[in-house]
Amino acid sequence: MAAQIAPVSCERTHVIPTFDLKYAAPENAPASIRCWSGGTLNYIDLHAGRSAVAYNGSIHMAASDPTPALDTIAAISTPPGRGGIGIVRLSGPLAAQIAAQLVHLRQPLEHARARLADVLDPGSSSSGAAEPARIDEALVTWFAAPNSYTAEDLVEIAAHGSPVVLELLLRRALDLGTRLAEPGEFTQRAFLAGRIDLTQAEAVRDLIEAQTLTQARQAASQMGGALSRRVAPTKRALVELIALLEAGIDFAEDDVDVAPQAEIARRIGELTPPLIALEASFARGRIVHDGLTLAIVGRPNAGKSSLFNRLVERDRAIVTATPGTTRDLVTERISLDGIPLELVDTAGLRDAGEEVEQLGMARSREAMADAALVLIVLDATQPLNDEERRLLALAQGRPALVAVNKSDLAPANGAHPLEGISALPTSALTGEGIAALRQRILALATSGAAAEPGLLTSLRHQQAVAAAIAALSDAAQANQGAIPHEMILLDLYRALAALDSLTGQTTSDDILNLIFSTFCIGK
Ligand code: GDP
């Protein structure tokens, strides 16, 4: 008999007293429950809403009771410096109460409505005036829990962007009983309250840090839950398989074979391909997130700097220049179709002469060692020399391409023998071949991978998915070896824990703290 098992949808909850759920769910068990046992997440599967099975020792059942109250935090949420507007944010149970003491509201606070208020200068009353004088005017918006960014009571006081006024507000908020927020603590609270998962929280940081529109779009899609949605069907199927095996163990004494070996193999087999595709998306996700380095190498005078300038030029408006100090390398960050690319030019050596030539080539090799992509620039008017042959040999098997520059001076058919590396005629002087060069660099950078929703963008994500794939492979092997279901289950639970760590359901506090500490204060 196959148990009819409803996959559990996890809701943010907290632990209530230990409960032995082995075979009976309490009358008042919520429809979806989540539980922990000794720090590992377990699933409780409601069997037709009446009975439940829970495993691995004692179970803490989680229900939807309110989370224990946290303190009220405050921070200046706008960047340091002067600006048109500056915002002080308060979140926690006392947010509205403290805000009402911080400013003189002209109307009572109302959820999601901006209210005009006077920011008063407490120091002014001691100088003889009866009432403290107004030092600024502000708009105060209160978002009542749970309908706020943090899912707590949240107040935003938008004053003029004067650091003096904002600091006055913050200092008073602290005096009135708030605590200065840690970096990322507002978002962390949204995560802890279950309003967003960990991938969405990370996307908030990525959005703020985005340098190109493509990065911002990627972050926005992840913030909308694209990655979690992509993983969800696999996770659901995995939970169903776990439930099936658990049920099989329960009915073992009745000699009922609920899950034949072939069925288990089929189900594990179906779980893996979506995860492998997901892991493969890291190839593009990582470069969208982190960008890449392209080293431009070749002999002096081949036209490296001229090509570099050509590549940089079109994006000049949105690039940030980095002074090239290391080893005479000039670096510049450009956005190639939204992908951040750091160009490294081994410039700085102009004069001819054997020594300089050798030094230039040595630098080329160094730059190549550090870069993800390599652009070898050859001079179409010169025969290949030994060093260039060595560079070409070094580039074999790496993401590299060759520009045969000064094509304006050499006949098109006078191509160099290039030993299997794709070569493109270019002229930094006339601009010929530059558009094609950009296209080739882009294709090389993305390995041809297309943009898709729910990309993996961080090593943390990739490692979680890789761990899940490895655990599933172990489960498949165990199943093939006719190992008892209890052992297969251990592998399946491991896969589940890995997928759960992606969204933060089983991520340790240390790792959470590490992630949120990379946020800015006030976010
Ligand atoms: P690098 O030493 O490899 O960085 O070479 P440069 O970019 O400094 O160029 C060396 C010389 O070649 C300069 O005088 C450039 O103006 C010239 N040059 C660079 N690219 C081209 C090109 O495509 N066609 C022509 N005719 N001259 C070029």
Topology:
Blueprint: E1 5-6, E2 14-18, E3 34-37, E4 40-42, E5 45-47, E6 51-53, E7 60-63, E8 73-76, E9 83-91, H1 95-102, E10 103-105, E11 114-121, H2 122-125, E12 133-143, E13 154-161, H3 163-175, E14 179-180, H4 185-192, H5 198-209, H6 213-223, H7 226-250, H8 261-280, H9 282-290, E15 292-297, H10 304-313, E16 321-322, E17 330-336, E18 339-345, H11 354-370, E19 373-379, H12 386-395, E20 400-405, E21 423-425, H13 434-446, H14 459-480, H15 485-503, H16 509-516
Helix pairs in contact: 4-5, 5-6, 7-8, 7-15, 8-14, 11-12, 14-15
The chain binds guanosine-5'-diphosphate (GDP).
Guanosine-5'-diphosphate (GDP) is lined by residues 298, 300-306, 347, 405-406, 408-409, 427-429.
Fraction in helix: 25-40%
Question: Ends: how far apart?
Answer: 51 Å
- Assembly annotation: single chain
Strand residues, percent: 15-25%
The whole-angstrom Rg is 30 Å
- The number of distinct β-strands equals 21
Describe this structure in words.
The structure is a single chain. This protein is α+β, with helices and mostly antiparallel strands. The protein is built from 16 helices and 21 strands. 40% of the residues lie in helices and 20% in strands. The strands form four sheets. The chain has a seven-stranded mixed sheet with strand order 10-11-12-13-9-8-14. A seven-stranded mixed sheet has the order 16-17-18-15-19-20-21, with helices on both faces. Strands 2-7-3-4 form a four-stranded antiparallel sheet, with no helix packed on it. The model is unreliable at 1-67, 315-327 and 348-352 (pLDDT under 50). Guanosine-5'-diphosphate binds next to helix 10.
